[in-house]
UniProtKB/TrEMBL annotation, chains A, B:
This is Transcriptional regulator. Residues 14-112 form the HTH hxlR-type domain. It comes from Fibrisoma montanum. Pfam families: HxlR (PF01638). Keywords: DNA-binding, Transcription, Transcription regulation. InterPro entries: HTH_HxlR, WH-like_DNA-bd_sf, WH_DNA-bd_sf.
Amino acid sequence: MNELSRTLKTDEITQLVLKKTLDIVCGKWRLYIIFQLTDQACRYGELRRRIPEVSEKVLVQELKELVALGVIEKTTYGETPPRVEYSLTERGRKVLPILLQLKTVGETFLEV
Amino acid sequence: MNELSRTLKTDEITQLVLKKTLDIVCGKWRLYIIFQLTDQACRYGELRRRIPEVSEKVLVQELKELVALGVIEKTTYGETPPRVEYSLTERGRKVLPILLQLKTVGETFLEV
DNA sequence: CCTTATACTAACCTTTTGGTGGGTAACCTA
DNA sequence: TAGGTTACCCACCAAAAGGTTAGTATAAGG
């Protein structure tokens, strides 16, 4: 019984961990956005221009979510016209190599 | 113009690659299913019992999708009651280490 | 004083994903 | 002959994800 409850608990933790990962990774554009910020911070408009296929609403929404998750951070300069920059957080930079490796997964399954 | 079209093409390839990756990874239960097959093949019913939270329909559906993607394979033994086993394909085993690393991502963002 | 630029918000709609509750075939055992 | 076991299928439904279109504040530039 004790062992069972320990097993259950481990499963629950694994599920939590995986859920968090999926929150960060899933969503059609999240990885794409993260990869755009690999080297430097990027303004909102610049992101729009670099990923023209994503709709405005979704981009804003995804950026907000990634900020809430702690993957990226937002810096607002009180200027007009407004200037806002997005960049990776420390944690974001920490996991970036793993996320970049995910390309290998896609490549492996696209090979003939 | 040549450079632009080359850039566009690269972007398209990146998008294809990422899409393929997301197909494999996303979905509430896909990673979970893949991880269950790390060491040995597993029967359908065994998977059901190991992941009780997933509904029957969704499990079947996810298994089918993973087979179609080439991540896992299905072996049917013509017995009654039926026996069906799922296991990782060669490609599946190849990318498994990368997928396992994804746990690190979740852990990083769950830390206090 | 009208336009332009930037970084958004809000209302609304469609598609995709995940889930429930039933049913099925085939053989074995009691 | 009734019930158990296994690995599914089908019709239907709710919620989440993704997308379109229009509108906003502010200041600088012509």
